[in-house]
């Protein structure tokens, strides 16, 4: 039985709460991950921004931005630079879109417990914290790697057992088989 500390990923890509959402969205793409933890300067876990959060919040944001009256007023005209600057300054930040209600575990949490949490809550990862600070992430992929790593010893034991059976079969004839027996009939 493995613990979180034995299987967790410790090379963490994280975001700061004030990062622009468009910059946060680049992190999963650049690093081949599906979520980004949000931490403060001290490493305290504040939340997580998943691909689902980005997609969900992006749809909400674009609906709010496309006010029909603004399009009508601006039709054929450039928007004032001060207005454009204002809109950019009020772009959503990681803190605006992150999920705050997250499942965390301690480094000592058994892998079986982690698997149950991931299944029960239908999530893709749990965050590993110590004293409120993020120290690792256990994803479904980490659990699968653990299972795959434990498979070879079992497979080797089964293969060894099969080799021993074959060796015994070679030493002793099978029941009902005439191989190795000579006829001793008296005529």
Notes on the structure:
The protein is of the alpha+beta class. It has a single domain, classed as CBS-domain (Roll), CATH 3.10.580. It has helices at about 5, 20-30, 50-65, 70-75, 80-90, 95, 110-120, 140-170, and strands at about 35-40, 45-50, 105, 125-130, 135-140. The strands form two sheets. A three-stranded mixed beta sheet has the order 3-4-5. Strands 1-2 form a two-stranded antiparallel ribbon. Strand 4 (about 125-130) and strand 5 form a beta hairpin. The protein is elongated. The protein starts with a helix and ends in a 16-residue tail after the last helix. The relative contact order is 0.17.
Q: What features would you highlight for this structure?
A:
187 residues, alpha+beta, CBS-domain, 3-stranded mixed β-sheet, two-stranded antiparallel ribbon, 8 helices, 14% strand
Strand content: 5-15%
What is the top-level CATH class?
A: Alpha Beta
Describe the global form: elongated
What do we call the CATH homologous superfamily? CBS-domain
* Intertermini distance: 68 Å
How can the largest sheet be summarized?
A: 3 strands, mixed
What is CATH's topology name? CBS-domain
Helix/strand structural class:
alpha+beta
The tally of structural domains comes to: 1
Tally of strands: 5
| Poorly predicted runs of 5 or more residues | none
Helix content: 40-55%
* Structure annotation, total helices: 8
What's the average pLDDT? 82
Instruction: Name the strands of the widest sheet in spatial order.
Output: 3-4-5
List the secondary-structure elements in sequence, H or E: HHEEHHHHEHEEH
Taking all Cα atoms into account, the compactness measure Rg is: 30 Å
Proper CATH architecture: Roll
């Amino acid at each position: 039985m493995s613990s979180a500390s034995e299987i967790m990923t410790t090379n963490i890509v994280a975001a700061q709460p004030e990062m622009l959402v468009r910059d946060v969205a680049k992190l999963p793409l650049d690093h081949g991950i599906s979520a980004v933890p949000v931490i403060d300067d001290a490493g305290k876990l504040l939340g997580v921004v998943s691909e689902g959060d980005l997609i969900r919040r992006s749809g909400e944001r674009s609906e709010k931005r496309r006010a029909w009256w603004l399009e009508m007023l601006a039709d054929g005209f450039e928007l004032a630079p001060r207005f454009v600057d204002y809109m950019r300054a009020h772009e959503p930040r990681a803190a605006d879109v992150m999920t705050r209600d997250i499942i965390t575990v301690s480094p000592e949490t058994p892998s079986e417990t982690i698997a149950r949490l991931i299944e029960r809550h239908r999530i893709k990862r749990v965050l590993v914290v110590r004293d409120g600070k993020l120290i690792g992430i256990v994803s479904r992929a980490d659990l699968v790697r653990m299972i795959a790593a434990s498979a070879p010893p079992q497979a080797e034991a089964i293969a060894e057992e099969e080799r021993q059976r074959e060796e015994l079969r070679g030493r002793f004839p099978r029941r009902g088989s005439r191989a190795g027996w000579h006829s001793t009939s008296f005529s």
